[in-house]
């Protein structure tokens, strides 16, 4: 609660209206592109967004340096970031929910469980529920053989020669380690150890990039054995869940990279004044937690 | 910071002031309300008589869809956010919203989003025609190409809602004046705090479901396609996981508004303040576990039917607590019936009717008869029109003198109320009968048998529409002049907003007031 005087209410600002414009151009351009148009509007929107976000963040940073941000305002930023992350959690929840529903309800029903046997016989005769789903209802009804067959061709652990050659395990190790290193960076900062901070944060960024490389590796492998986004609901859930997670890791890595550059190049962040870094690190822990969910529900139980 | 508003129209583009932004939200919402109203009148004109006369069936479908989408996302939600912007900082004694620039961004996304959404009507293949609930595969396999634009419009207005609610939460939790403890906050603030949590929890799920549609349409995934192992019913689950809390997003702030108005005109403190808070919180919680009551006829296992039936009925308990409290507040009060109070009383009565028809719909076996008929249309219009629209109107009349410093014209206000009240009941009450008798919703033609009631409904709709033009006129003439309002405006109203001058200065509470 406000005991400490004036809360900083910024003057008029051009940033938000251009942010709205940029966002609009981006999505309008994306829709145009998807409906068979070109990239121009999308690219234009992306550029506007990039410029706006750059200046928006620089404005906030310089306001902070100028001492305009009271503790109360900082608390608003903390609430803001916290609930933003919660909204992201709910976004993932929708996709995890879809995975749960498909595995536990949709597939058994399609295969005629309970009182759905007539539907199965008439529409998808021969379809049997399995996970990972290799033969979709459509393929079963048409008598097609699975394109994706046998071990080594889906992402579950049972198919790896040994646990050590199982890529998702390495991904997990990399990401969990990075959560620890970002924590070390934070501790170093709290102890006024700027050098330690830079090193640990740098390592975290490197681990983030390593994770993305491994993930790309895995996708290439998947596509090489015909496990694709449009290969049925297994590919759908697999790529959408891991894909959105990967997109969030990319964003998180980028955020941490920016924080690292700010620290190394501009000497930003003091032990009691490091919200930008902290926000990025919370985000990083969040993508990590989502990964643990993925590891359990998509990979181990996959 | 003691300065006034900037000059010129860029004031509105660049503003960071919660009052400016609140006004823009309210005007935007009113424009959308009129647009959605025009769509509704097209529907009612077509249904005036049986047979097809005015519009093509395909266009009729676009009208029902756009009417629903524009009213829900364009009229009701932004109106509540507008009221929140205007009132919450004043009610908790804060200088502005917690994150003023983001506040501007949340607003200005909306005109772009709706321009894009309405523009789909002019695109090849027409606009969305699959109902506001956009069930797959109607909205995926069989959708017009413009659905892609619809999807992205939903994405960005969802972003706007999420930013708006983050702002509201941060304002309420972080910016209250010293002494303003949580249990001293006006109920409008409480209900909005809870609404904001609902929004943050379900708007991302809506984003998720439209993303799944986008992927199914353009990238060959099979979320909603049984051929690939997905399930169209999955769409309905995810949609209604968002959708049911969404209906509470449209009603909880309304509860807050009438809880402010009724005590003022009954000249008694609100009965059962803390039970109101707990009831609101329980409703919000329950709203997450009832979604499949919209899907009783889709073929769920019996355990699901039962669970969702009983859970839905539970909601009637906290809702009943609220109605009881409003009635008890009025009981033996020294009541007067100014326009805001008329709208609030109508709210209590008509919303209760909607609640009862909701209970009927909640009975799973009975819903097999009611589902997708005009009975459902009657139900949700009884909760939304007297619920959301009447409370917003009541709020506008109640706070307008504070906003612009002038009193509105009471005679005109009352006339508008009676027009709206009669129009609304003429429009929606007969829908209960035709619905129970089996008239389907979302169909441009109907059996001769339903002709009389439909004609009454259509007349009522035009009367209701006329009432809104009157509201517009009354608001504009109040802004331009009229009797000066006192700072208190009403007799001993409660709340910090009445301690500042009328019209409220551009910046209020730059230093926090002390709250006893
Ligand atoms: C006592 C409280 C309530 C109960 C028990 C209840 C129950 C129901 C049920 C069971 C349905 C599904 C009917 C069907 O499609 O067959 C329904 C539909 C609906 N309700 Fe309610 N409801 C309640 C309150 C509300 C409130 C407060 C609102 C909004 C302010 C609301 C808005 C709607 C809407 C918009 C629909 C129709 C959705 C559609 O299919 O387009 N309801 N309600
Ligand atoms: Cu519902």
Automatic annotation (TrEMBL), chain A:
Keyword line: Membrane, Translocase, Transmembrane, Transmembrane helix
Membrane-spanning residues: 39-57, 77-102, 163-185, 197-216, 236-261, 282-301
Major enzyme class: translocase
Pfam family, one: COX3
GO biological process: aerobic electron transport chain
Membrane topology: Multi-pass membrane protein
Main location: membrane
Family annotation (InterPro entries): Cyt_c/ubiquinol_Oxase_su3, Cyt_c_oxase_su3_dom, Cyt_c_oxidase-like_su3, Cyt_c_oxidase_su3-like_sf, Cyt_c_oxidase_su3_a-hlx
GO molecular function annotations of the record: cytochrome-c oxidase activity
Superkingdom per UniProt: Bacteria
Assigned EC number: 7.1.1.9
GO cellular component: membrane
Cited PANTHER family: CYTOCHROME C OXIDASE SUBUNIT 3, CYTOCHROME C OXIDASE SUBUNIT III
Family (UniProt): Belongs to the cytochrome c oxidase subunit 3 family.
Name of this chain's protein: cytochrome-c oxidase
Origin species: Candidatus Endobugula sertula (Bugula neritina bacterial symbiont)
TrEMBL record, chain B:
Alphabetically ordered keywords of this record: Cell membrane, Copper, Electron transport, Heme, Iron, Membrane, Metal-binding, Respiratory chain, Translocase, Transmembrane, Transmembrane helix, Transport
Membrane topology annotation: Multi-pass membrane protein
An example Gene Ontology CC term for this record: respiratory chain complex IV
Gene3D superfamilies associated with the record: Cytochrome c oxidase-like, subunit I domain (1.20.210.10)
Gene Ontology terms, MF aspect: cytochrome-c oxidase activity; heme binding; metal ion binding
Xref: Pfam families: COX1
InterPro entries cross-referenced by the UniProt entry: Cyt_c_oxase-like_su1_dom, Cyt_c_oxase-like_su1_sf, Cyt_C_Oxase_1, Cyt_c_Oxase_su1_BS, Cyt_c_oxase_su1_dom, Cyt_c_oxidase_su1_bac
Record carries keyword Transmembrane helix: yes
Domain Cytochrome oxidase subunit I profile: start-end pairs: 12-516
GO biological process entries: electron transport coupled proton transport; oxidative phosphorylation; respiratory electron transport chain
Principal localisation: membrane
Catalytic activity: 4 Fe(II)-[cytochrome c] + O2 + 8 H(+)(in) = 4 Fe(III)-[cytochrome c] + 2 H2O + 4 H(+)(out)
The EC number(s) this enzyme carries: 7.1.1.9
Pathway stated in the Swiss-Prot or TrEMBL entry: Energy metabolism; oxidative phosphorylation
Family: Belongs to the heme-copper respiratory oxidase family.
Function noted in UniProt: Cytochrome c oxidase is the component of the respiratory chain that catalyzes the reduction of oxygen to water. Subunits 1-3 form the functional core of the enzyme complex. CO I is the catalytic subunit of the enzyme. Electrons originating in cytochrome c are transferred via the copper A center of subunit 2 and heme A of subunit 1 to the bimetallic center formed by heme A3 and copper B.
Protein known as: Cytochrome c oxidase subunit 1
Source organism of the structure: Candidatus Endobugula sertula (Bugula neritina bacterial symbiont)
